[in-house]
Amino acid sequence: MSGPSTYVPQTGLTRWLDTRLPLVRFAHDTMLSFPTPRNLNFWYAFGAILTFCLGVQIVTGIVLAMHYTPSALVGSIPDSNLAFDSVESIMRDVNYGWLLRYVHANGASMFFLAVYIHMFRGLYYGSYKAPREVLWILGVIIYVLMVLTAFMGYSLVWGNMSFWAVTVITNLFSSLDQVIPHLGSAIATWLWGGFAVGDATLNRFFSLHYLMPFVIAGVVGLHIWALHVPGNNNPLGIDVKGPQDTVPFHPYYTVKDGFYVALFAILFAALVFYAPDLVGDPNNFIPANPVVTPADIVPEWYLRPFYAMLRSIPQQLAGVLVLAGALLTLVFIPWLDSSRVRSNRFRPVMKVFFWVFVADCILLGYCGSEGVDAAWHLGGIELSLVWVARIATAYYYIYFWVLMPLIGLIERPLPLPDSIAKSVLGASAAPAE
Ligand code: HEM
User: Fold this and answer.
1) Residue 245 sits in a domain of what CATH number?
2) Is 287 exposed, middle or buried (0-12, 13-18, 19+ CB in 10 A)?
3) Is the CB of 128 under 6 A from ligand 1?
4) Is the pTM of this model over 0.85?
């Protein structure tokens, strides 16, 4: 925690507890009195929004699991399966089951929307730079866990897109056969629990999908611990120089974060109540069918940028390596950025490349949504989207491995303000100590 504790127990009970298990002191120091930079903006509400999303997913998920059957076996409905039937029963028979399911399914989308904003915010303000490297890496671990959790959760419906998504992605492991014969196929068989995607696969995915959010919650605990040691970065990217630069977390940020969580919840509710199937795939209204492949197998929107990278490379193993490398790259960012200045607010050159990078990720997502034969017709020229995805993938790597190290060395940053207080309060600020 940052600085000595200011907690004074007021009652007999809290004094007694404080000398045995100082839980109230911990809550007070981390959530109430914690000194927080006074200039945190809207983008800093996303940590609280993410915590809200994780809570919503866990609560709705636990109740859904009470009514769900993790079985690929055929039930009373011919050509369907018990898992799909149980999801339909949740939608039709369970009281407010439709609400639980739509909140959980759209909750995953809202969670990813929030996490992407949170990550881009961190990139823009240089929040990964020393002394916050561990905080950032824990974030990357959370993100990878979120991807795995969402992938396994999507399989649970055991609709036709669920089934084929699992088949395509788990089959990627078989590309390792090109390195060591049979290794990849052996891993795939081990993952499936059989010789094809089936009942055993669904069972283990259900078990892991239930477990992982709690692992994520544990890593989030570490993430916030690692945040509280150096304290928050802020939009200026300069260090806190004294008490005049901070305000206590409560009431200032409890109220501000609470307001934005409420706004986010309204947006979330609009999606759930007015467009609950907006981001879903129609193929998942059809029970899993191992002999009918959907015309285009595409993941949910939040995984499409990475899917576009994978698909743009004709050689499967190379595609897998490019995809894994793109995720692994995130771990090295704190050491790839050579700039002395954290925030892009003061980096006129890097700022431009940052926004190109944001557009690049959106473009990759778009490429991942389109069919494999899709092309742009520019005048008389036909530009295959596979090539657009290749160029966008190249920019993703160039941004981190070339531009980040290089621009930090050659760019001349704008002058930094003396202190957070001076920047916020102008001349009326007390001098920094
Ligand atoms: C379940 C997912 C996550 C939760 C609940 C979470 C929670 C939080 C919270 C509460 C904060 C402090 C408030 C704020 O700055 O917004 C924070 C800060 C931060 N998070 Fe996360 N986080 C999550 C995922 C991630 C991911 C995926 C990354 C990056 C890969 C990340 C990187 C950071 C960084 C760098 C900060 C410090 C920002 C600053 O001080 O400028 N987080 N996180």
Assistant:
1) 1.20.810.10
2) buried
3) yes
4) yes
